[in-house]
Amino acid sequence: MTALFAVVPVMFFALTRGRIGHLIVDEQVLGQTSEILESVGDAFYAVDRHFRFTYLNRKALEQIGKPRGQLIGRRFLEVFPQAEGSGLHNSCIEAMRDGRAREFVGVSPILKRWKSYLVLPRPDGGLLVHSRDISAQKAAEAAMRESEKRLRLAAHAARFGTYDWDVASGQLFWSQESLAIHGLPCTGSIICERAFDLIHAEDRNRVAAAFESGLDPGGVGFWSIDYRIVRPDGQTRWINAQSHVVFEGERGDRKAIRVIGTLQDVTDSKAAQQALLIERMRFKTVVEHMPVGLLLVETPSGRTLVGNRQVERITGCAIPEDPEIWVLDRWKGYDEDGREIAVADQPLAITMASGEPAELIARSPRHDGYIGWLRITSAPIRDPDGDLTGIVVTIFDIDAERRTADTLRDSEALLRRAVEDAPFPIMVHAEDGRVVHLSRAWLSITGYAAEDVRTMAGWTRLAYGDGAEAVMVRVRSLFDRDCPIDERENMVRVADGSRRTWSFRSAPIGRDADGRQLAVTMAVDLTERKEDEARLHLLMREVDHRAKNVLAVVQSILQLTRAENPADFTTAIEGRLAAMARAHTLLAASQWSGADLAAMSVDELAPFASAGRIAIHGPAVSISAEAAQAVAMSLHELSTNAAKYGALSTPDGRLELSWRVEEQEHGGRLVLEWVEDGGPPVTPPSHMGFGSMVLRQTVEGQLAGELALDWDAAGLRCRIAMPSDCFSAAGESDSAVSVSKAFNAGQVAKPAGSGARVLVVEDEALTALAMEQVLLDAGLIVLGPVGRVDDALELLRETIPDLAVLDVNLFGQTVFPVADRLLVLGVPFVFCSGYSRLDGISEKLSQAPLLAKPVLADHLIATLSSLMTDRTRISAGASAQ
Length: 881
Prior knowledge:
CATH topology of the largest domain: Heat Shock Protein 90
Distance between the termini: 124 Å
CATH architecture of the largest domain: 2-Layer Sandwich
Number of helices: 25
Shape: rod-shaped
């Protein structure tokens, strides 16, 4: 059996060299032989013309002890620098240089074992290297040479000798070889007693018993025995004696008369047996300490010749004491679906029946009840004639490996779910260009199907068109880095042909189970933000444009307004500016989409309203942003004229404002009708005043409309018609509009408690000075003005005012801390701001009046008067209680 194990690897190696090597040379394509290379027991690996690994079969990976992912794509000397200058390295260089195969035997510089190498050039300039571990063969050859030497010496030193013993006379004749074996001179004969004295004392009784048994007339007359002798020179030698007895006589007269036989010095054989026993003990020790289960089964008997304890540990099945019993007969294994594996499906049974290698991955219960994963392989052993003589069964404990793989698979599944469910575009891709995971957001935003984005090349082709290659260069460079990369903004093309602005951030995230390096790329869709920024820039330009227009209009108002005295001039200016401000407030509320005509009319007429005096009705109409200011100014001029000279100047006067939208066949215009009644008798003016001039220039010049003024004695009739680009209609039926009575400008008096102290908090210097003058003219005492929150709080620590006027925004800070302090002190206050409403303030602060800038002096004084009156009434009520 030892000889068989020595010959089989050599024969298999030669067969593999001839058949596989020829196949590779013929096909010249490594990919077409990969299945064969994976199935053979030799190591194969391939390198390209830059000596980078491109392929390693399973045996090569087992021998090298590194995973495939740490080798593929790396240079040979980068992984194994110790191989530089070795026979293998030089042979590879020569084969790559001249394109001729190289074959040599040497010690591996990596594994430090004897190897037989075959280096085959490949058409692409690379190499295919086949290596066969022949360390055992070399050791066997060395042992054989030593054994042959010993045999030659033994044959010379321990030739067979013969002897002839005359039982009756006691004479013993030894041949010269027998005498030489015993270390005696060649005298021809020796007495029996002398020969017996040469036997080792410890073996004499055993030899005597063998002779006595052999001389028994009733016995077989033959014996064979090994015993020791002590030669005259003191050497102890082992002798093998083969003896045959010659009898004479019959039955009761039968007796031994002669013994003939052979003598052989078997000292060396005994030593070899002892060495073999020691070697077997060593082999058994090695087998027992192997990390895998090992069985050596004889065929066709099925006897278990060798088996270690790892088999029992991994399979949970004890090796039977009877070698005739298959150890795997008692084994219970289960496949991945939990089905029990039949004996006939076990690798040992498959190889026994077919003579082919077999493999099985299964789960097996162990002694402690734990069910672990294992891999069983069986490989045939054949004699030189190719007959199956044995089977090697290896059993690997792969439980930790399998569970690690399961954990990795679970982690990859978790990663896949995290990526796919991410609310923003995210992609995981590998260094080979494959897209491993892709979020649904990526697909939903771009509109592409998952099949279109299987590779990075596919994605870049769709998203960048002709610029795809430049993007791919950046993608490939990502795997050469070990840190995140923030990419600039990119314009990507989506499925509907439009383009979106994306910002990318990418980073390497390690390797997957196949050893591929992975990277994650996350995208932020900036399209809407960019559009918002563009709109904001446009709005800023529009605000700048409108602000300058407003200033120009204010400048015009100042230049064109005429009055007999400064007070009337100020009143006129304030009124016209207030009309502009109210129009802007309405535009801001609609985000500059237009101003509601009904709201605009109410704002202009509310200061003059009383029960039943003013009627407003018409369909829902929005004045365009471009025309809103002009319409507001027109209504203001009509309202001011009515309040000074017309129907609103007397308690019995009435005003009706209505509008309608004409049918398209009549021009589709917006027509406003202003009708006054019950006021002083009306006479046509002798000359055109400023109001009439503004009204005509605004309607006919700016709005391209029509203006008709009828100075009827009962009251002014005004008809204004505006083209369709000045408005948009939201409804067809008319509806009445309620005009609440705000205050009557003609009845404003000085505030209750004249001489009251008013705190003014305003950061705009000119506005603060103007407001201070208004308050002083009304007989009030001004505290301040102050333009900072801290200054206002400091002043409140020194004194408590009676009233307060608060601007809302003070150099980026809100005035609300000051307002909260005033609430604690019980001081009434009014907010005076450019904001039309205040959002996000407390309920108590929301109870304070809000005056929109610019504020009319009369309106401000009236509001403060109302606050002071309420405070006085509350104080009086508290005193009465």
